[in-house]
């Protein structure tokens, strides 16, 4: 069997460096070096060792196919080198524009009129075209990830733009139609429509139109015209989209080297441009594969011209045996041993591979024929690949090419004038301003903290949350908002808020004042305190709650929004609605479930007495007065009180320890361990914590518990608890 067939038809071809070894060297315990070598290559790439990484990626390809998705770290390494050597001193202007919010009516991505605006989860709005073509993976303004699912056009914002700027909206819709025609492969119609938009007075609109037209030209395989459009656009604003489409045209024309450079420039402007990164990965994979095939071809030609008995005993075979020996030893050792093997691979593997290539070039005439002009020798092929990726000569090339473009093509005087005019922000005609256009359809007041749902409808944040408390559907179109509710990302729609502040500032100030007054009213901890009518609560005792009723969802949300993080807890009273005494609960954490329910972790705070009752938005409220224990000032009386406390504590400890194990564990799970004995029993207004813990765990009627809760005398409370413990201990089998 020839060495060439041996590589293709047997497993040895994947486990040898350039060619297979003898069949007798193979065994069932043969080690796969591919993951180890690929991992080493990625480590070198992450450390910016570009040339070493290239060697190791080439080596990996002899053991298995390197896929484009395996080169993500390699691409990042090349991009960092590119930024340092090319972009460093003269960064593309497109990056600066992305960080500049500019006109409120401009799309943050393409800087064109936002037109049919789509509001994403972070609250920023983009034109429909950028969303449909998936031109961004992160928000240009805040950097948050953009998940492009089924976001619809913002109904309020698009309606306002149609009213204020009808002509520009018409052109924006035309550009959307161009994209739709390209998706339907109606390229000639797309070219015609895009050409009409290039006569616009808005230079950014012209750029977007020419980019759309370039896409249609590519569909028609008219690459020269497509290249002309994309180079014009990249010379104007150097945006990531313009560079990406320019690179795609070059790629389709077969100019791989230039397309790689432009793709890297695109990633330098926007490193999160996933489509460009995927293209770079594919190009690099092709480059590595080409270099790898040249090396394999040269080695096969070289070995075929010599005696196979001699070649089978070369240094490569010896090195292969050493590698296998080291790998077998590594399976019995720790990660440290693996690291040592990886380091030994780096020295022996690459140095011997280099020596084989050099020796082959010197000794074999057949290899000269294979690598003669116009092909490169193996060593020169590797050097060329490193030169392509080291980017040492790219800076001058990019600058010179840009100068040639401007001299050859340039920007017309008329277009430069349009660019100058484009710096003026759009102003809404005063006669078209109407505050009614900014009213929430739920509360019929001016938007306050407007949020936009995935279906495109906008509401006040509080109004929408209250609707979602009852049903997870849009209040207007009834579309399901279950995913939106589960994410709980109610981000303010920035464009609407800016427009309200800019054009309706007096109304906005009044609306804000009303909201602050309402918030202040809800923040009072003695008047109109929200009351949760459910169970008994005690000071210092945990009280976990499962909140599912819409009224209590609202109540908990208000407690969190106002910052008080407190509400009252009372038991039910058939005549009065809720009892005359209760305990404040302090919210420690809230865990929201996907359907809007929540698990609230609270702990008891101050006790209170109800002075008056009320109702607000479905839940009960009350004016309250906090309770405190009466302090004992006489020293003898205090000493007797301390003695009583110690006796009750010891009695309770014995009772708790003698409980059945299942009851004992249930108490520990729900209420925690029994509090420690306190030295100062009057340190807090509520007295010792052990009294409240006992009151919570003792099996007594809630009305009896309520009577003890209302006591302001520590002595009376201890006596009551002592009587209960004495009774429980007197019951047989308790």
TrEMBL record:
Keyword Zinc-finger on entry: yes
Annotated keywords: Metal-binding, TPR repeat, Zinc, Zinc-finger
Intervals holding TPR repeats: 240-273
Domain RING-type, residue spans: 107-142, 440-478
Stated name of the protein: LON peptidase N-terminal domain and ring finger 1
UniProt key word Transport: no
GO molecular function: ubiquitin protein ligase activity; zinc ion binding
GO cellular component: cytoplasm
Organism: Cynoglossus semilaevis
Domain of life: Eukaryota
Domain Lon N-terminal residues, every copy: 519-729
InterPro entries: Lon_prtase_N, Lon_prtase_N_sf, PUA-like_sf, TPR-like_helical_dom_sf, TPR_rpt, Znf_RING, Znf_RING/FYVE/PHD, Znf_RING_CS
PROSITE patterns referenced in this protein's UniProt entry, alphabetically: LON_N, TPR, ZF_RING_1, ZF_RING_2
